[in-house]
Amino acid sequence: MIYLYVSLIGIAAFALWVYLQDRFKKKEQLQELRNNWGKVKQEYFPFHQIEDYSKISDEKPFHELSDQTLNDIDFFELFRFIDRTTSKPGQQYLYSKLKRPSASVSELQALDRQAKFFSGNQALREEIQQNLLLLSQGAYQITALLRKKLIARPPWLKWLVLDTIIVCLLIALSPIYQVLLLVLLLPAVFNTILHYWNKQKADSFAKSFPQLSVLITIAEKLTKKELPQNKDGVHEAIAALKPFQSRLKLLSLGNDGTIRDDLSQIGSYFLDLIKAIFLIEVHTLYHLTGELETKQQHIRSLYRYVGNIDVAISVASLREGSAHTCQPEFISKSKAFSVSNIYHPLIKKCVTNSIHVHSKSVLITGSNMSGKTTFLRTLIVNSVLAQTIYTCFADEFKSPVLKQFSSIRIDDNLLEGTSYYFEEINIMASLINEASSGHQNLFISDEVFKGTNTIERIASAKAILSYLNQGDNIVFVSTHDVELSAMLASEYDLYHFTEVIENEQLHFDHRLRQGPLTTRNAIRLLELSDYPAEITSEATRISTQLSNRQ
């Protein structure tokens, strides 16, 4: 009897140890979530996996940022800063969202309400985040289940049902006709070989299948909470995918890393032998993949539902961080754009600027390093964020709903043998094609045709900028060509950045000022850099002659 008591005490102690370990782990997770709230993630970003959902998303967006614009705004670095998601599907969903600015103000305002809800409900938010943590690294693979064809079905698959029936009959009749046990060896050996061949196929789903099951469970838990998220189609999706969870238990997917004693190992081998003889895993794998191929819309529904909740929590965390943010105000379609104290979120101690556009576009002049390019990037980054996460880095941001296009960072393509100028031509052509497409656009350009001679550059730039400015399109462009200021005065308001030289040193305040640039310091900078006097004096003389001719 004493052995029984000792056994019961041992079982109870083990159960208590498991319980305490689980409590300790959850307490650690909770503390880490609190420590990371409002902060930038310090982790590796596998963008080759993060971008998977954006590649297979069936949503038809109002606008998708071009590769040129993604490059211009340093999209990967921007995403690293913006992303505060907890789950891998949430991270993938946010990535897709940031690439596709929305035209639905009501949808953006709904996200705003959801973010504010989670900001004001810390306990519920943290409980949800702990659930979302279960969608771990393997959850990136759920998107693989949204491919049109999950697995190729061999032509002989239909005969496996007959194979299993024959095995069952041989086993059932063997007590009467023992000789059938010898006959059974043939299909048993064949089925065992097929079973282990099939395991290689099943291993490709070793991460996606279990994580899809976790996604279903988490979605079901979340639907039982009073959240401001839209649940349309979610309950139906959960009900449709429940049979998948049940059948998944019949599959042994990969090595789970569990350490077993000898007795458990024997039991595991015996169970695997039973599965092999009756082809249980083979039938299960092809049934599950066939079933999921018909239920991909249900997977998408759960993915969007859980992803949207995670994104809303992420936005709440971003807003409660150290960076100052505001919510945008969308105005009716018009040539108007107004921002106050706007700044770039990736630049530490970034100087803020304000600008208010009415009826005209904007031409910005100024020397290198004065702040022109940074300001242009600041505008387009905040415009994108306004129409994706309803959050801007400014005191005030007012804008119509726009499609964003840019031409800032251009490189010659050595592999394709394309010169810098031809790259400029191709990129500007893509902007020109959008200018008369019927929707309102934001065009951002840092210089136009830097890769050609002065006369043709100015002539082409004037014609292109007038074309882009048609209708309600809003254009922000920087230039070193002061001649454009006079040519475009009726279409563009003039602004500039400047610098001052004090105590033989160059100073930039990075402040945007209205009006044309009136100072020229390029030759003075040559002097400060100790260029020979004969160079600077000749440059000054020629500059004066050219200015007098204008």
Relevant terms:
550 residues, alpha/beta, Rossmann fold, 3 domains, six-stranded mixed beta sheet, 21 helices
What does this structure look like?
The protein has 550 residues and is an alpha/beta fold. It folds into three domains: 1-36; 149-306, no CATH class; 329-519, P-loop containing nucleotide triphosphate hydrolases (Rossmann fold, 3-Layer(aba) Sandwich). The chain is built from 21 helices and twelve strands. Strands 6-7-8-4-9-12 form a six-stranded mixed sheet, with helices on both faces. A hairpin with a 2-residue loop joins strand 10 and strand 11 (505-508). The longest helix is centred in the N-terminal third of the chain and has 35 residues, at 2-36. It is elongated, with a radius of gyration of 32 Å.
Summarize the amount of helix as a percent range.
40-55%
Q: How confident is the prediction overall: mean pLDDT? A: 86
Name the assembly state: single chain
- The CATH architecture of the largest domain comes to 3-Layer(aba) Sandwich
Task: Enumerate the strands of the largest sheet in spatial order, edge to edge or round the barrel.
Answer: 6-7-8-4-9-12
Q: CATH top level of the largest domain?
A: Alpha Beta
Through-space gap between termini: 111 Å
SS elements, strand count: 12
**CATH homologous superfamily caption of the largest domain:** P-loop containing nucleotide triphosphate hydrolases
Q: How many discrete structural domains?
A: 3
According to CATH, the fold-level topology of the largest domain is Rossmann fold
Number of distinct helices: 21
Residue ranges: pLDDT <50 for 5 or more in a row? 255-263
What is the approximate shape? elongated
- Return the structural class: alpha/beta
Radius of gyration: 32 Å
Most strands sheet: 6 strands, mixed
Strand % is 5-15%
